[in-house]
Amino acid sequence: MIEIEGITKRYDATAVVDDVSMVIEPRTIAVIVGTSGSGKTTLLRMINRLVEPTAGVIKLDGADNRSLPGYELRRSIGYAIQGHGLFPHRTVAQNIATVPVLLGWDKARIKARVDELMTLYQLDPEAFGPRYPHELSGGQQQRVGVARALAAEPNVLLMDEPFGALDPIIRTKAQEDLLTIQKRFGTTIILVTHDMEEAVHMGDKIAVMDAGKLVQYAKPAEILAKPASAFVETLVGASERPFRLLSLGRVRDAVEKGTAEGEAIPGDASQRDALAELLWSGRPALPVRDADGKPLGRVTLDGLVKRSARPA
Amino acid sequence: MRGAPERLTGEGVPIRFDKLGVVIAVIAAYAAFAAPFATFRANRIVPGQARSMLEALPAATGPLLLAIVVVAALVALFKTPLLLRLAASAAALAALALLIGVAGTFLTPTGNTFARISPASGFWILIFAFTLLLADVLTRLELSPWARVGVLVVASAAVALLLISGSWNDLSILKEYANRADSFWAEGSKHVTLALGSLLAAVIIGLPLGILCHRVERLRASVLNVLNIIQTIPSIALFGLLIAPLGWVATHVPAAAALGIRGIGTAPAFVALFLYSLLPVVANTVVGLAGVPRAANDAARGMGMTDRQRLFGVEFPLAFPVILTGIRIVLVQNIGLATIAALIGGGGFGVFVFQGVGQTAMDLVLLGAVPTVALAFAAAIILDAVIEMTATRRREASPA
């Protein structure tokens, strides 16, 4: 659990982060969204003390993050940034091993961990381990960057626009991979982005920052349904709201009794995908099947339209 | 002589000129036909008489050398395969090197120990032209760093072989050497010690200073400005400026005097070379460290490296090729500048240069100048190779 209590960062007279308090539950993903200059990156960097706060306290599992020297604290927290920041003079394997080496793990343990992470990220350790970062594609570099951040099995992972430099298709894949790995390791993730789509997709909770202040900190559905201010409403995008709301729900949760003709849609697809398919194929309803192909019922255009309306 | 272009057209290849080759061919033609090949003097200080290539060499060899030069120039003139150009330049250089020795023996009257034969402008220009061709070919061949050092070793070995074999012994520069063999090596080692020692001192002081300038922004501008100003002081003036303070140190600090520190001699030369070396070392360290990708630095801090770990693990390795470039500049610069040290009794190859100037004996000047140029050239090639190796090691693919 991460408790941020009244944290403020001033440079001269300007408060970049202004009295922010929030609690991030363990094993969840908190996404900090805001325009550039909103203080979101500074807030993130105060958690691992790359930036020292002017006032306020940050507690990690109850302990003040100032109870350790900064470098020791940072070794226990994963850190991944936009443009990955891989060391160009070190191989992929050496890059991933950075923090374990700093922590003095023995060689066998480091190799086992590096191989495990590379396999997890679909990079063959034999083929990619000895390569240098510039020999990889952008997507591969990003995966190595996240693998490096996870190398020492941190409980907390900080990510600063980790997918910012990726093209849309690879970005979607990277987001899915991160969700899978987060579930597997139970890592608490704090992710900074300016992309509301990404925030709604990834976040268990979303923190909206504006001019150094925390404007709203809530579940995605609530941010969409009850934006706390005009700024949040703009950020959400009025024309995107219903679709973003639908994208939060799974098809199986919108199933109605009955049958429908044509190609079935899997139960764990998002309701937004189902709506898109209904609109595109001009059908009023789609059959729904679970992973084993067992029919679950159907999903209808009317039903989805009702679900996409502003919740009461 | 017209064989080369005709053969080319015979194969249906259109005749095309090589841009650099045109220049080389023009220079070579002037040097071979219009400039003197060797100079004959009755003794070491009287003005010389010019001898053309045909006059300077025995019957058959003169036309032979002329033929080799003309063919090599034609190979340079047209667009020809790289290996042919390599062979032509190497053959021309080898023939020139061998036959200038033959000219020395041929032109020296039997039993006359006063007469001096030296290479004249034509010879030097031809050497220049074909070295240019060779350098161009070697660049275009994109040789690996090791191969370039290999070429240097082969060339040095060839020169050493010619020197040992005695085939150049009748040339004036080697006659000067024979008179000064002992002091030549002593001054040579002093020259190298001066150049390398001041470089070493500059690296030991300049690297930490550069790192400090990188970390402390306020220091950077002032330190670099001071070093810049030092760089603009003419070397002779700097020697003069150092005489007073070092003389004072010598008279007031007995230990310093015991170490050989005096107002004139090696000490001010060493200090001056050291001061000149600081700017390239410090400036390149600052530039190299500033060129380290921001993201890599941020990631290094974010993953919990201490400042020291970040410096030695990330910043320094990434800045190393740039720092090494600074060291290369310093080394080549110092080898040249150390010549001036002789003016204030600092020794080195400059001793021969200034003696030669004083005696109007150009051969003696060359005895000091040629080894200096050769040393600087060799140092540049070796350090360039090292720089390329450190910069490319991380780029080399290592397929599993």
TrEMBL record, chain A:
GO terms for MF: ATP binding; ATP hydrolysis activity
Domain ABC transporter: 2-236
Keywords for this protein: ATP-binding, Nucleotide-binding, Transport
Keyword Cytoplasm: no
Transmembrane segments: none
Transport in keyword set: yes
Single biological process term from Gene Ontology: quaternary ammonium group transport
Matches recorded under InterPro entries: AAA+_ATPase (IPR003593), ABC_transporter-like_ATP-bd (IPR003439), ABC_transporter-like_CS (IPR017871), CBS_dom_sf (IPR046342), P-loop_NTPase (IPR027417)
Annotated family: Belongs to the ABC transporter superfamily.
Protein name: Osmoprotectant transport system ATP-binding protein
Organism whose genome encodes this protein: Mesorhizobium qingshengii
TrEMBL record, chain B:
Protein's GO biological process: glycine betaine transport; transmembrane transport
Record has GTP-binding as a keyword: no
GO cellular component: plasma membrane
Keywords for the protein's UniProt record, in alphabetical order: Membrane, Transmembrane, Transmembrane helix, Transport
Topology in the lipid bilayer: Multi-pass membrane protein
Entry-linked Pfam families: BPD_transp_1 (PF00528)
Residues that span the membrane, as ranges: 20-40, 60-78, 90-109, 121-139, 146-168, 192-214, 226-249, 269-290, 311-331, 337-357, 364-387
Ranges for domain ABC transmembrane type-1: 188-383
UniProt subcellular location: Cell membrane
Main location: membrane
Signal peptide segment: none
Keyword check for Glycosyltransferase: no
Source taxon at top rank: Bacteria
Annotated CDD domains: TM_PBP2 (cd06261)
Family (UniProt): Belongs to the binding-protein-dependent transport system permease family.
Protein name per its UniProtKB record: Osmoprotectant transport system permease protein
